[in-house]
Amino acid sequence: MDKISGAKKTELTELPRISDRVSFIYVEHAKINRIDSAITVLDYRGTVSIPAAMIGVLLLGPGTEISHRAIELIADTGTCIIWVGERGVRYYASGRALAHSTKLLEKQAKLVSNNRSRLEVARKMYSMRFDGEDVSKLTMQQLRGREGSRIRKIYRLLSEEYNVEWNGREYKIDDFDDGTAVNKALSAANISLYGVCQSIICALGMSSGLGFIHTGHDKSFVYDIADLYKAEITIPTAFQIASSAKETYDIAKLARLAIRDKMKDGKIMLRIVKDLQYLMNVKENEEFCIDALDLWDDKNENVKHGISYKED
Fold first, then answer.
1. 76, 131, 179, 245: which has the fewest Cβ within 10 Å?
2. Are 88 and 116 in a shared domain?
3. Burial 54-84 (b: 16+ CB within 10 A, else e)
4. Do 55 and 149 share a domain, yes or no?
């Protein structure tokens, strides 16, 4: 029992599956507290109450204050919490994992620690992007070169489709406004995707730093996984936004809302879980990490919570 409120701590088996959760919510210049099993967000517009267990990722932007009791609830319900910079485009810190088992982490560490198995996983990642191509004999350098060509082609095609000038991926990490509209939209959209990938990696008890393609960064594996979906989700969204955006528009906000809309049915989040299982060679009948994986399946395809938290 919670010594302060008397509320019973939620058991893992009672938590909503991923298909029932909101992908992410971004909050800035607000105070976050807790009432029973919900967090409350207070800003100049008033207060909104959100069941904590229904949130996949809570992105905390500048000017946000959060109470200890709210953090306690968020941790207990397996919600990933990430502190981000202005407009949500810098990543500072994140919360704890949901999983109590380390078996997926052990699998990840074993695969990444051996050069042969690491390359095999990297090839699987690239084969998911190069539909119909045989990458079984390509080296890591060849894979990266092929991916670079593919992404440059996608940028070029979308630039023509949306009539948006494209001179390459350019941005200053300390000066968001210095970039072009499409580059700003890409930065904001990508950080939202990173947050969702981070939340799932964290919830399953895996390490965000043990990457197979990206290395040397505490979010290398997050970048590995996010790269599987950028060509489908964030890149087209960024060009679409840039094609109609005016100088007065808040590009970062438009990008976050667009990515959230694309993920609201939970299908992308479910795909990430299944893709992680595929990459880690998890068999259908393999019994492990049941406390976390059971929460992230697709037995319930309908979104039941009916939460509407709009960023106006």
1. 131
2. no
3. bbbbbbbbeebebeebbbbbbbbbbbbbbbb
4. no
Greater pLDDT, 174 or 201: 201
Q: Domain containing 149: what range?
A: 103-296
Strands of 38-43's sheet in order across: 46-51, 38-43, 31-35, 65-66
For the chain, the distance separating the N- and C-terminal CA atoms, rounded to the nearest angstrom, is 37
* Adjacent-strand bridge partners of 40: 33, 49
Handedness of CA 80, 272, 227, 135 (dihedral sign): positive
| Total domains in the fold of the chain | 2
**Binding site as annotated, residues for Mn(2+):** 147, 214, 227
Domain identity same for 43 and 160: no
pLDDT of residue 100: 65
268 contacts 262 by C-beta, under 8 angstroms: yes
Rounded distance between C-alpha atoms, residue 187 and residue 171, angstroms = 8
Task: Based on the fold, state whether residues 37 and 163 are members of the same structural domain.
Answer: no
User: Global pTM?
Assistant: 0.71
175-233 pLDDT, tens per residue?
A: 667 778 999 999 989 988 998 888 788 778 889 999 999 999 888 999 999 999 999 99
Count CA within 13 A, CB hemisphere, residue 168: 3
